[in-house]
Specification:
By secondary structure, the chain is mostly helical. The chain has 8 helices and no strands.
């Protein structure tokens, strides 16, 4: 068997396993999707979310981005670390205490301000886009190397996979 065939088989089996897990453990409600149904402690919930963002896909994607772009890509790593891991671990207990599922909802209600909520939304979008740009570029690089396709086509395939997998959670 050629290396390409082995790549397709291994990656196909991996995706099949992930999809099977996603379908079997599908969230029944929005609250369950965002906060594990309230059945875990705030700290454990924060750690689980942080662990999700520190997945192998993230490391592989970031490594691909740094390999192609050099050290200029380190800004994506800073956005990833500061924006997701620290914010999640530090904010989740307060989100749970106030009964909110998102940081903008918490900020808006905590400070009784629609303007503060709007600023939190803009910050969340900026942090997410900084993270997503690096990860999607890295996914494109990894797929282009594995399957001999162009990086933009690899980004499109990666985005479609993420979209489908996230859709299974709801």
């Amino acid at each position: 068997m050629s290396q390409d065939t082995l790549n397709f088989i291994f990656i196909g089996l991996t995706f099949a396993l992930y999809i099977t897990i996603a379908v079997r453990s599908r969230a029944g409600s929005t609250k369950e999707y965002y906060t594990a149904g309230g059945g875990v402690s705030p700290f454990a919930n924060g750690m689980a979310t942080a662990a999700d963002w520190m997945s192998a896909a993230t490391f592989i994607s970031m490594a691909g981005t740094v390999a192609i772009s050099g050290y200029d890509a380190s800004r994506f790593l800073m956005g990833w670390t500061g924006g997701f891991v620290l914010l999640t671990v530090l904010m989740v207990p307060y989100l749970r205490k106030f009964g909110k599922a998102t940081v903008p909802d918490f900020i808006g209600d905590r400070y009784y301000s629609k303007l503060a909520r709007g600023v939190a939304v803009v910050c969340a979008i900026f942090i997410c886009m900084t993270y997503i740009m690096g990860q999607m570029r890295g996914v494109g690089v990894v797929f282009s190397q594995l399957f001999g396709i162009s990086i933009p086509f690899g980004v499109i395939i990666g985005a479609a996979i993420v979209f489908a997998y996230a859709g299974l959670g709801e």
